[in-house]
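Q: What structure does this chain adopt?
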Amino acid sequence: MNDSALTTRKRDTKMTLKLSGTVALVTGASSGIGHATARALAQLGAAVVLVARRKDRLDALVSDIESGGGKALAIACDITDRASAEAAVGQSVEHFGRLDILVNNAGVMNIGPVLEREIEDWEPMIALNQQALLYMTKAALPHLHKAAQTGLRRVADIVNISSYAGRVASPNFAVYNMTKFGVNGFSEALRQELAASHIRVGVVEPGAVKTELNDQHKGAMRAEIEAFFASIEALDAEDIADGVAYMVTRPRHAAIGEMWIMPTEQA
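A:
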């Protein structure tokens, strides 16, 4: 490769890492992986729509992004309600005029023995981890399709945040496993459906990450999780955000369908 071609290749590669002119919607953006991902995409030039329930945290993140020269919009809502999820997508497009990237990050981890828990204990997790993801995806698809056909990048992205628990089943994780195995299956089937339309669908499966997701447990389950985290060097939310940013900044002809991000020490 001559010097001129090499210079052009470097310039093109640099351009693929920029999301200027795009709009990304991130659910669960008030903390953890969603918060870090929204910041990462904003730093790459995307206007970012932040969706979660805690408005004060979303407003603080908007201020942070805007102080760095970025664009952001906070939408406080409960996306387990279908109408609210659809309204969030509609408000995003109305405000910024388009939608190029959807990151379905919102989720909860409720674990424990199935024999000892009530069905009602699991229903909020199923609603958020699966139904809300479906509501957001379905509402976003027409806008993502338009972006893939007419946008500057001529490609759009859906990234679903799953889990190591979407690959490996474990005792006391049965219902959480059910939700995350479901996310993985949905993501791969949807990827195949949309591939020809240049709407890329990828799933990220984190291992142990230091987030608020681990703080809700009590008793023996909490002690078990705390002991596990004390035994390894767990990931930070920014490690997952880096993975998401990598997926959505690939050239149009390249898609990352699955990304498994683990702490080095996690077996």
